[in-house]
Structure formats: C-alpha cells, structure tokens
C-alpha cells in the first residue's frame, strides 16, 4: 500500500528495536518519513551531529525526513497505532519503557539489563512525563523509575494520562 504526495512508499515502517531480555524485534508504525530517511540524515554530517547531540531528535521544521502527512500522524500519535500488532505478537505490552534502537541503549550504561528486564510498551512513564520534550539522561531515569516501580495501578494511571497527553498533543513531534 502506498501514500500520496511527498510520502511515496509503503504505508508501514518497520525498524529493529530491543525488547525484553535484549530480544530484537521489528516495531511497526505508520510511516511518517521519506524513504531512506536514516541515510538522508547521515548524509548531512552537520544535521546528523545535531541529531546525536540533541538526544536523537530534531525539530520537525528542520528535519528533512518527515513528510507533510507524517507531521500530522506524529502530532496526533496515530503513527503509533500499528504497534498493537507488536502487542498481539507478544513483543510489546500496552505500558512499559519505549523500545529503543542500539544507539539509545548505550545511554543506559550499567543499567542496561534492568531496562531490558521488562517488555517495552506503546506508552509509558516517559511519554506521560513529557515525551519528546525530555531527552537523555533524564529519559533513562524515567524509564528506570517505571521498571523499578511497575504495578497494575501505575499502568492504569499511565493509560489514563496517555489519553490526556494524546488529546492535548503534548510532547509529540
């Protein structure tokens, strides 16, 4: 299936992420970036350095990888819906730390195994605490807080807070 306009290519994006106990799996999202987005970013050395030094993110206005439709999908968090497939497959849960790529795993240093001891989630404590507005190393602290304090009560609270955050479009880009 293909999008239109500047978003030519497949409807879904998949990327390898780390799951529970370090198991690698493919995360699914609606594609919000141009094809070969990582290559495009890495080809611009200055922008790539900014991306790395800015906690693995760029402002939407300066990020050449994000399509027009992708900006909408990200702002509304609709790009995350296909992760329900990951939940059904058992790779993810509804609530937990966000699944991360190898570069980000380095941020967890000697707490790596603690972070990987739980299933990653579609939403979590980091997302409801500020999401993209909170970078590393603060993100590590928030994700590990969840790992060490997880409970059904905390999960329900996070799900309710997620609905509020998504409706208010806080921290999404």
Number of helices: 9
Could you list the spans in which at least 5 consecutive residues all have pLDDT below 50?
A: none
Mean pLDDT across all amino acids: 89
- Through-space gap between termini: 24 Å
Radius of gyration: 16 Å
Strand adjacency order, main sheet? 1-2
How many β strands by DSSP? 4
Class from secondary-structure proportions = alpha+beta
Q: Give the SSE string.
A: EEHHHHEHHEHHH
Largest sheet: 2 strands, antiparallel
Can you describe this structure?
The protein is of the alpha+beta class. 42% of the residues lie in helices and 12% in strands. The strands form two sheets. A two-stranded antiparallel sheet has the order 1-2. It has a two-stranded parallel sheet with strand order 3-4. A hairpin with a 5-residue loop joins β1 and β2. The radius of gyration is 16 Å and the shape is globular. The chain starts with 11 loop residues before the first strand and ends in a 5-residue tail after the last helix.
Question: How does the SSE layout of this entry go?
Answer:
Blueprint: E1 12-18, E2 24-30, H1 37-43, H2 45-53, H3 68-75, H4 83-89, E3 93-95, H5 102-105, H6 112-115, E4 121-123, H7 125-129, H8 138-149, H9 152-168
């Amino acid at each position: 299936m293909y999008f239109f306009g500047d978003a030519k290519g497949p409807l879904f994006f998949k990327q390898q992420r780390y799951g529970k106990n370090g198991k690698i799996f493919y995360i699914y999202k609606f594609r919000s970036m141009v094809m070969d987005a990582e290559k495009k970013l890495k080809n611009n050395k200055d922008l790539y350095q900014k991306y790395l030094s800015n906690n693995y993110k760029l402002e939407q206005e300066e990020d050449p990888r994000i399509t027009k439709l992708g900006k909408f999908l990200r702002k509304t968090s609709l790009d995350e819906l296909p992760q329900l497939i990951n939940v059904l497959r058992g790779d993810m849960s509804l609530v937990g730390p966000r699944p991360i790529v190898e570069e980000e795993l380095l941020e967890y240093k000697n707490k790596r195994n603690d972070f990987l001891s739980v299933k990653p989630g579609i939403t979590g404590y980091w997302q409801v605490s500020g999401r993209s507005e909170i970078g590393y190393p603060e993100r590590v602290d928030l994700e590990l807080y969840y790992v060490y304090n997880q409970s059904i009560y905390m999960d329900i609270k996070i799900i309710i807070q997620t609905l509020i955050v998504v409706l208010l479009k806080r921290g999404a880009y």
